[in-house]
Design goal:
- The protein is mostly beta strands and about 50 residues long.
- It has no helices and four strands.
- The termini are far apart.
- About 0% of the residues lie in helices and about 55% in strands.
- It has a domain of about 30 residues.
- The protein has a four-stranded antiparallel β-sheet with strand order 2-1-4-3, with no helix packed on it.
Length: about 50
């Protein structure tokens, strides 16, 4: 059974329209998530921020 604390979130690139989808534990991580991930549009690592 899936955990009720985890929610699917969208990580949007700050430099291109590319989007990653991931899960986040809302109880442990209450703030917005920011990760450096690979952007295939730009072919380099960029900052991805949690979007609504």
């Amino acid at each position: 059974m899936a955990s009720k604390n985890r929610e699917i979130i969208k990580l949007k690139s700050t430099e291109s329209p590319y989007v990653y989808w991931t899960r986040k534990n809302k109880k442990q991580t209450t703030g917005r998530l920011e990760l450096r991930k690979y952007d295939p549009v730009l072919r380099r690592h960029t900052l991805f921020k949690e979007a609504k």
